[in-house]
Amino acid sequence: MAAVDLGASSGRVMAGTAGPSQLTVEEVRRFPNSGVRAGPALYWDILGLYRETLAGIREAGRLDGVGIDSWAVDYGLLDDRGALLGNPVHYRDSRTEGVPSRVASKVAARELYDVTGLQQLPFNTLYQLVSEGARLEAASTLLLIPDLLNYWLTGSIGAERTNASTTQLYDVRARTWAASLASRVGIPPRLLPPLRDPGTVVGTAAELSGLPVVAVGSHDTASAVVAVPAAPGTNFAYISSGTWSLAGLELPAPELSDAALAANFTNEGGVDGTIRFLRNVMGLWVLSETLRTWSCPEDLPALLTAAAASPALAAVVDIDDPAFLPPGDMPSRLSAACRTTGQRLPSGRAAVVRCIVDSLALAHRRAIRAAARVSGRPVDVIHLVGGGARNELLCQSTADACGVPVLAGPVEAAALGNVLVQARALGEDLPDLAAMRALVRETQEIRRYEPSGTADWAAAEARLHR
Ligand code: LFR
């Protein structure tokens, strides 16, 4: 199978196999995917992504299927002939400034949460669509990024459920589009295409000699959570660590209490009807933007080694502050955040990297503790999956900050989850998530980090409230 995994900094086409005691993924093609600033807006280069995706699939050799997952919330609009209307806009664009409060005057935050279960993020699809204004009149269909690429491959129009659940236009309990809510905020329900479950064969790709295209858990985080190697019966939390840290729990049903709303937890749909009860923590984005500001992205391994030798918790910031959301000069923003809490950003690049990693681990602590408190479920172990599982300092700091062991890996969780759901759709005997996770445990490298208890994380947390 080909697993296409499009992230906010790079896209990859992986070749994967799954069978009894066998699960592999291997990178075939990787391509950069930074946003493109043009005029007043920040866009995705969607046609470039499609071209690279096709090239990668062709390079992968003989295949039984292909599945696409990507970041969530962003979309393309089609006209009534099926042609793309305008270029998809990047969720870090500023066009939704002021929109959430306008929407709140029509639908109260409590009601919005009651229907959709979604956390408040300025870039939720609902807010992006409202910011389009009259342009929506020309549109007949909305397709999220993986659905758009699937449409170009197969001609079939639909909305895969795990990603649809991130739009703030999906009724999390009824498992349908929230059509009347959409109307009330001025979004025509005709835009919302038929829903499809992950594991559905969408069609075949004429351009790829009739290759079957499978709707996987098309939200990358949903695919990553499939590959969390949790053993049956453990009280586990997960952190899918990459550009974002998606930190939370897998629940059988949405948690829509006042406490969940106040803690800004989301109830996104997972594969097989599960709920991903999690919070978006700002993630390694702040680190990668910092390295971009310094023009030294290739220095990351050396800087992390040096950071590990710098004193822990010398300075910490609230990494979830919206100031860190847009692209830009992160070191200056870190300095400013330190000043407002009576701290100084230590000098030297290694110390700045240490401040970012410590602050991220501290945010993991807040999110995991809040998830446990709000859901009433204990957390005895954290599975940290995705690219961040390679970052030893982050894994150890997260274990220290949270006070529970961290099991790190697999790094390629999203691609593995993509392959597992495809394999089942194509006839492999993987009846449920437990069987998929057993296969991940059996075949993938996982490292254990014990909490060391040497630093005072509670005191560091208190510094943020000064
Ligand atoms: C991670 C992710 C998050 C989503 C963010 C924006 O890649 O998909 O789950 O909140 O990107 O789409």
TrEMBL record:
The keyword Transcription regulation does not apply. InterPro entries: ATPase_NBD (IPR043129), FGGY_C (IPR018485), FGGY_N (IPR018484), Rhamnulokinase (IPR013449). The keyword ATP-binding applies. Coiled coil: none annotated. It holds the Pfam family FGGY_N. CDD domains: ASKHA_NBD_FGGY_RhaB-like (cd07771). Residues 63-226 form the Carbohydrate kinase FGGY N-terminal domain. Keywords: ATP-binding, Disulfide bond, Kinase, Nucleotide-binding, Rhamnose metabolism, Transferase. Residues 237-425 form the Carbohydrate kinase FGGY C-terminal domain. GO terms for biological process: glycerol metabolic process; rhamnose catabolic process. GO terms for molecular function: ATP binding; glycerol kinase activity; rhamnulokinase activity. GO terms for cellular component: cytosol. PANTHER family: L-RHAMNULOKINASE (PTHR10196:SF93), SUGAR KINASE (PTHR10196). Belongs to the FGGY kinase family. This is Rhamnulokinase. It comes from Amycolatopsis mediterranei (strain S699) (Nocardia mediterranei). The lineage of its organism: Bacteria, Bacillati, Actinomycetota, Actinomycetes, Pseudonocardiales.
